[in-house]
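Holo prediction. Input below; ligand is 3-hydroxybutanoyl-coenzyme A.
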Amino acid sequence: MEFKKIGIIGASTMGAGLVQHIANCGYEVVFRARKQSSVDGALKHIEGQYDFMISRGWLEEGKKAENMARIQGSTDLEIMAEADIVIEAASENMETKKELFAELDKICKPGIVLATNTSSLSITEIASVTERQERVVGMHFFNPAPVMKLVEVVPGYNTSDETVEIVKKLSEALQKTPIVINEAPGFVVNRMLIPMINECVGVLAEHIASAEDIDRAMQLGANHPMGPLALADLVGLDVCLSIMEVLHKELGDDKYRPHPLLRKMVRAGKLGQKTGEGFYKYNSK
Ligand code: 3HC
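Structure of the complex:
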């Protein structure tokens, strides 16, 4: 299958990162956000990222205009009618995703793959609202999307082998390494990573060490590229909490109980980099 135009649903951290990366890989991208301010914000953010890449010598100056010309954003889901594959990166909410997939199934070309970047929800359940369950699959990218090399490819109960091959091929074309895994809450990475972050929140709440020292410990003692609390700020504390909630609910084991401090910080709107404050403060917001 040829991909000329790739559709992305959502324009926040993962959606915008995917649009940025996919355009930089030479594909046309259409993306949809619910509000015009989000469409405009994402375009501005992506342009800023290309400027940053140019300043670091990672992108040739002339490529920025070429990449931006390949990107088209809209608030109208109908824009997905032109796409050769759609990757949904909307909020981590089952009802939202089901509504989107039911609509996409009607709007999109017959037979094209509808992938979801869900970080923990059931692919089978998302696919169940469509008439093309064999064409629905998990395609889980990591943050920052332009940088992280892994894609977890997650077939649902009815996903065809052909669909799995299509998204493996696309992952490779996007310079990523796909691994095919069985559907399970949190898949592979988040099943291990997010409980570790949750445990770090506990270590902080028990005053065992400061946020800086917890992060330093894992960077220097376990060679992590960044500390787990800084990583939580990058991923979003709301995203970490929702993944812990899925693990707790689906696996039924109290070892997955979200730490009350994580819950409290989300309630206070301290979501990390995107709100200007999480475990650390950020100047840009
Ligand atoms: N856009 C495009 N490329 C970028 C970029 C950007 N904004 N920022 C960095 N890069 C690329 C550069 O081209 C560079 O490539 P090169 O080595 O070929 O020149 C490479 O990334 C490294 O750049 P830096 O040297 O500036 O970056 P650092 O060495 O400081 O690493 C990091 C930054 C990659 C973010 C690193 O700290 C890291 O790996 N952190 C951990 C991230 C992680 O664990 N993510 C997973 C989160 S979990 C998740 O996403 C799942 C979800 O479901 C919750």
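The pocket of 3-hydroxybutanoyl-coenzyme A is lined by residues 49, 52-53, 58, 119, 142-144, 146-148, 190, 193, 225-226, 231, 235, 239 (CB under 6 Å). That is the main takeaway for now.
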